[in-house]
Write a structure and sequence with these properties.
- By secondary structure, this protein is an alpha/beta fold.
- It has helices at 110-113, 155-158, 161-174, 189-200, 213-220, 235-246, 262-271, 292-297, 312-321, 340-348, and strands spanning 23-32, 43-46, 50-52, 62-63, 66-67, 72-73, 77-85, 97-100, 103-104, 124-125, 138-142, 146-148, 181-185, 205-210, 226-229, 252-257, 272-280, 301-304, 331-335, 354-358.
- Strands 1, 7, 8, 11, 12, 19 and 20 form a seven-stranded mixed sheet that branches. A six-stranded parallel sheet has the order 15-14-13-16-17-18, with helices on both faces. A three-stranded mixed sheet has the order 3-2-6, with no helix packed on it.
- The radius of gyration is 20 Å and the shape is globular.
Length: 367
């Protein structure tokens, strides 16, 4: 295990100001801790102060192709209140409660122009090197990255719109789910939300697979129709037992992997029906042993999923507002800003489902 120094300190930072007519300044009220956050070294978090974590490779110091070489402000799953707007902002006003989409594309490249801004090579994404994140008192984003929250949605649940948008994107990539069988590997926040969205999209059967029994029990309350606890057997045996548990012996129409773990990916491809669709949502090791022969034999579709795109945030909020996705209970721990270290340790130990950190000067009761 790599040595880690988990010391914190607070520092002042300048309050961001409106620099463009479309700029919006948001006071951050709640920020969810993502699994990727605990994988980065030399991390920073800001408030009216700056919390600095001198971490010598907290886990890996790298997520896919993104490497952290310098201190970085973390956080990208945030909700807050608009405090000021540029002259060109038309849809927002001071006091609006919003979920913050934390990535800004260049708007001019081929991918942005084609409506796939999540693939923009010049994307400025919060807490992705070298761009600072949202664990701060104030954060600046353009108008199109702020989405009004219905009054029925709390700030703590507003912080879940970001991972919910990821789940929406994954499920949209899988195609038509109406009446189909969907298997999701990984009952963490994104996996759980994928299961919930799959049911909202009309899936007849949603099977959730994980190693943690308590998370599987939670999945049954949030859309899963069947659960399977992964065993220490071969991938083929796990796939067979998984399908038997749901009565889908011919295989799953759609498989979504939210783990990035090689055994889950292999088991998922084994469990996929011939001609099915496999969506890769989770990131693990950058290179794994992959059963490409089985993909070809089944003439399956394998799709990578990266963040979210146009309409995903809006649809995520609509699913919550309509009650088709129920976020109650997803947030299992809330920490004040001063206890951010404990929040990160909680996620590192995989305790509960979702951990949220209050913004600076925000009481837990306000979230």
């Amino acid at each position: 295990m790599l040595d880690r120094d988990l010391s914190f300190r607070y520092e002042d930072r300048s309050v961001p100001t409106v620099q463009d007519a479309r700029d919006v300044i948001v006071r951050i009220v709640a920020t969810g801790v993502c699994g990727s956050d605990v994988s980065l070294p030399n991390q920073l978090m800001t408030g009216p102060w700056l919390i600095k974590m001198q971490v010598h490779y907290w886990q890996h110091g790298q997520i896919g192709n993104y490497k952290v070489n310098d201190p970085l402000v973390l956080g990208h799953e945030s909700a807050g209140v608009v405090v000021s707007c540029g002259d060109g902002v038309k849809s927002l006003s001071r006091g609006d409660r919003v979920a913050v989409e934390p990535g800004v594309g260049c708007t001019t490249c081929e991918d942005c122009r084609a409506g796939r801004y999540n693939l923009c090579s010049d994307m400025m994404f919060a807490a992705t090197p070298p761009y600072d994140g949202t664990l701060t008192k104030y954060y600046r984003v353009p108008e199109e990255c702020c989405f009004k929250l219905p009054e029925s949605v709390s700030m703590r649940d507003g912080a879940l719109i970001e991972p919910l948008a990821i789940a929406v994107h994954c499920c949209k990539l899988a195609g038509d789910m109406q009446g189909k069988t969907v298997t999701v590997f990984g009952a963490g926040p994104v996996g759980q939300l994928c299961g919930s969205v799959a049911r909202a999209f009309g899936a007849n059967t949603v099977l959730m697979a994980d190693v943690v029994a308590s998370r599987l029990d939670f999945a049954l309350r949030k859309g899963a129709t069947h659960i399977y606890q992964m065993q220490k057997v071969s991938c083929r045996e796990n796939a067979a037992q998984l399908l038997k548990s749901s009565g889908k012996h011919t295989g799953s129409d759609i498989v979504i992997d939210a783990t990035g773990a090689q055994p889950c990916i292999e088991t998922g491809i084994e469990a996929l029906r011939r001609g099915g669709v496999f969506v890769q949502a989770g990131l693990g090791q950058p290179n794994i042993m992959f059963p490409v022969g089985l993909i070809c034999d089944k003439e399956a579709v394998f799709r990578g999923s990266f963040r979210y795109g146009p309409g995903d945030y809006k649809l995520a909020i609509a699913l919550v507002a309509s009650g088709r996705v129920d976020l109650a209970g997803f947030v299992t721990q809330i920490f004040p800003f001063s206890e951010a270290q404990q929040a990160f340790e909680t996620v590192l130990q995989k305790e509960g489902i979702k951990t949220v950190i209050c913004g600076p000067d925000v009481a837990i009761e306000e979230v």
